[in-house]
Design a protein that fits this description.
With 423 residues, the chain is an alpha+beta fold. It is built from twelve helices and 19 strands. Strand 12 and strand 13 form a beta hairpin. The chain starts with 6 loop residues before the first strand and ends in a 6-residue tail after the last strand.
Length: 423
C-alpha cells in the first residue's frame, strides 16, 4: 500500500482553516472520507474535489458513543478505510476509538484520554514521577477556594478540556477568585464552544514562569523521527491568549534541549508512540515543565512553519503514520529560513473599522489569515478574552529579517470605534 489511492478517514474536519491540511492530503493522492456532524461546512470539500466522500454522524461529546456512531456510519456508507486520523482537538478521542475498532494504526484510546483531560494528565504525570505543577480539579467556587489553599498563588484557572487557551485566566489572590470563576464558567459552556461537550470541569494549577515553546514531534513505533521547536512570545495575561511565535528559537540551546528531552520522556511514559504530536512547555527557573500534550498536529499555521523552516511535511507524516507506512522524514541540517507568526487582537471593545494588515499586497514571504470583518463587534483586552482579528506569517532569510518585516507591516494597528448604541 502507498499514500496514492489510500482511503483515509478524517474524523472531524474542524474549523475552515483546517481545509489546508485536507487539501494537502488530497494533493498527495489520498482518497479522503470526511466524517462530521450534519450540516458541517466540510461537506463542501466533496464539491471542491478535495474529499471523495462525506459521511454524516451525530456527535454528542461522549467519545465511546461517538466512536461507535462513526464506525456505524462508515459501515452504512460501505467505507473501508486504510487509515483514520484527525487534525481537530475535539475529535482525537473519537478518532482513536474508530482506529482501534477497525484494527488500524494509532495511539491507544486510554493514552489519548490521559492527555486530553488536563486534570488526568496532571494526575498521571505525578504518578509517573515527572516534574508536575501542583493542580486540583474544581467543580464549584467552594472547591476553587479549597484548591487555592493547596496550589497557592499565582495560579491558573483553566478548563479540563479546551484548546487555544480558551477559558484560561491567571489569578493572583483570593479576592479575585469569584470574578475569575464566573468569567471562566461562562466561557466553558458547551453552547459557547463544542469542545466543552466533553466536560466543563475546571482545574486550578500552579503558574509557571519562564519562556514558552511549542514542540512538534513525529513519532513512529515509539521512536521520535523528528522534532521542531517554536518559541512563543509572552501571552496576553491574564488571559494567556497567544500573541505570536518564531521558529527557529533563539533561547538558550541547552535549556531548549532539556525541554525537548522532557517532552519525549513524557509522551513515552504516556504511551503516545504514533503520529504527529504538539507539546507545549516552558523553560522555567526550576527547569523544564510541560503545559499540555496534544495528540495531534498543531493548529493554525504550525505545519506551514515547520515545512518552511525544516522541509518536513507534518501532514504527510501524520498520514503515513495513520496508514502504517514507513516514515521518510528528512529535515534539513540547518534552518532553511526563519518564520515569525503573529496574532493581531482587537485593541479595545467596539466596532472594527480598520484592519490595515488585511490590505497588505500579496507576497511569497507573507500570509495573512483574516478572522474578522469590518463592522464586526469585537472584544478588547478589558474583557479579558480579546477577539482575534488576524494571523500573520512572515518568512525571512533569518530571524532578524523576519522580525523586521513583522515590525514594519504591523506598525499600523487596527482601529476600533465605540460600539453603536441600539436604536
Amino acid at each position: 500500500m502507498s499514500v496514492e489511492g489510500a482511503t483515509v478517514v478524517v474524523v472531524g474536519a474542524g474549523y475552515r482553516g483546517k481545509r489546508r491540511a485536507h487539501a494537502r492530503m488530497a494533493e498527495l493522492g489520498a482518497q479522503l472520507v470526511i466524517v462530521d456532524e450534519p450540516g458541517h461546512w466540510s461537506e463542501s470539500l466533496v464539491a471542491d474535489g478535495i474529499a471523495a466522500h462525506w459521511v454524516p454522524a451525530e456527535i454528542l461529546g461522549d467519545p465511546d458513543v461517538d466512536g461507535k456512531a462513526v464506525v456505524d456510519a462508515l459501515g452504512a456508507a460501505s467505507v473501508r478505510p486504510d487509515g483514520v486520523l484527525t487534525f481537530w482537538e475535539d475529535s482525537i478521542a473519537v478518532a482513536s476509538r474508530v482506529a482501534a475498532a477497525l484494527g488500524l494504526p494509532g495511539n491507544p484510546p486510554d493514552a489519548i484520554d490521559s492527555v486530553r483531560s488536563k486534570v488526568r494528565m496532571r494526575e498521571r504525570s505525578a504518578e509517573l514521577g515527572l516534574p508536575t505543577p501542583r493542580a486540583m480539579r474544581v467543580r464549584s467556587l467552594d472547591e476553587l477556594f479549597a484548591a487555592a489553599a493547596e496550589v497557592g498563588f499565582p495560579a491558573v484557572v483553566k478548563p479540563e478540556f479546551g484548546a487555544s487557551a480558551m477559558g484560561c485566566v491567571r489569578v493572583d489572590d483570593l479576592a479575585s477568585l469569584p470574578g475569575v470563576y464566573a468569567l471562566v464558567r461562562d466561557a466553558v459552556r458547551p453552547e459557547a464552544n463544542s469542545i466543552f461537550r466533553a466536560g466543563n470541569d475546571l482545574l486550578l494549577e500552579e503558574y509557571l514562569d519562564g519562556v514558552e515553546f511549542d514542540v512538534d514531534l513525529v513519532m513512529l513505533d515509539g521512536s521520535c523521527r523528528f522534532s521542531s521547536v517554536s518559541q512563543n512570545w509572552p501571552t496576553a495575561e491574564p488571559s494567556f491568549q497567544e500573541t505570536g511565535l518564531h521558529c527557529p528559537p533563539d533561547h538558550d540551546r541547552k535549556a531548549v534541549k532539556r525541554l525537548v528531552d522532557l517532552c519525549l520522556q513524557t509522551v513515552d511514559r504516556f504511551g503516545l508512540g504514533y503520529g504527529v504530536l504538539h507539546v507545549e512547555g516552558k523553560c522555567t527557573a526550576r527547569g523544564p515543565r510541560i503545559i499540555e500534550v496534544n495528540a495531534r498536529m498543531g493548529g493554525g499555521r504550525i505545519s506551514d512553519v515547520v515545512r518552511s523552516v525544516w522541509g518536513v511535511d507534518l501532514v504527510e507524516a501524520q498520514m503515513r503514520c495513520a496508514l502504517g507506512l514507513p516514515m521518510s522524514v528528512k529535515p534539513s541540517r540547518r534552518p532553511q529560513c526563519a518564520v515569525v507568526n503573529a496574532l493581531v487582537h482587537a485593541p479595545r471593545s467596539g466596532r472594527l473599522v480598520s484592519l490595515p494588515i488585511a490590505d497588505a499586497p500579496p507576497a511569497d514571504w507573507l500570509t495573512v489569515d483574516v478572522h474578522a470583518e469590518l463592522g464586526d463587534d469585537v472584544q478588547g483586552p478589558e474583557e479579558v478574552f480579546a477577539t482575534t482579528l488576524a494571523e500573520v506569517t512572515f518568512t525571512g532569510k533569518d530571524l532578524k529579517a523576519a522580525r523586521a518585516m513583522a515590525d514594519r507591516l504591523l506598525a499600523d494597528p487596527p482601529e476600533v470605534a465605540p460600539a453603536l448604541l441600539p436604536g
